């Protein structure tokens, strides 16, 4: 693994793209650990709003349960609020955003008016590629701990005791939208709305691709190499 980056390094925005189940959340958590910058998962923020019954949550709930995408306007507004917080000053990992071309265009405009340590930094866009069958197995097998957020997979990474978190001892839960009937809709929505976004970045020469079928630590290594290059450049201008 590359050498540990300074914890006060300016990393800038990182955007993780990939189909549902590609491992964006898992990889984002590993990068958080490494750089001390926040993971901004639009899915997590939306689920939190649904659980708390906020106005935003009420608008998003039905759409999410169908496996469709929440409106660009709602999600972009939510992201703008989150990125304005102090912990985002050195950078952040966008997990699940942008997901449409409109969201990517919004992000470019937003970043054009922001600086990281006095510099404008475009997002490092990383697409985690995983084949369809592997995605299906990951999504249907995914369980998480409601207490610590740790993610398991009943097929490939089961807990020591069935249905119970190794660390917290809490009963594991399955996301409502990881049920089989919703999964196929989410994957269709990915093809319809998010694949054009991947093309959008690729056409502009801004897309980095990593093989998401490798073991998680090897995927992380590929990602860190992509992140560290701009992190070093940013630091070297000081
Ligand atoms: P995720 O946890 O990233 O799989 O997201 C769960 C659900 O939240 C998605 O199926 C969408 O309904 C909604 N969602 C998350 N991120 C976005 C986004 N960037 N744009 C629109 N909807 C989103």
Can you describe this structure?
This protein has 238 residues and is an alpha/beta fold. The protein has a domain at 12-130 and 206-227: 3-Layer(aba) Sandwich (Rossmann fold), CATH 3.40.50.300. Helix content is 48%, strand content 13%. The protein is built from 8 helices and 7 strands. It has helices at residues 24-35, 42-52, 55-66, 72-83, 101-112, 132-141, 180-203, 216-236; strands at 12-17, 39-41, 91-95, 124-129, 142-144, 151-153, 207-211. Strands 2-3-1-4-7 form a 5-stranded parallel beta sheet, with helices on both faces. 35% of the residues are buried. The model is unreliable at 1-5 and 230-238 (pLDDT under 50).
Quickly describe the structure.
Helices cover 48% and strands 13% of the residues. It is of the alpha/beta class and 238 residues long.
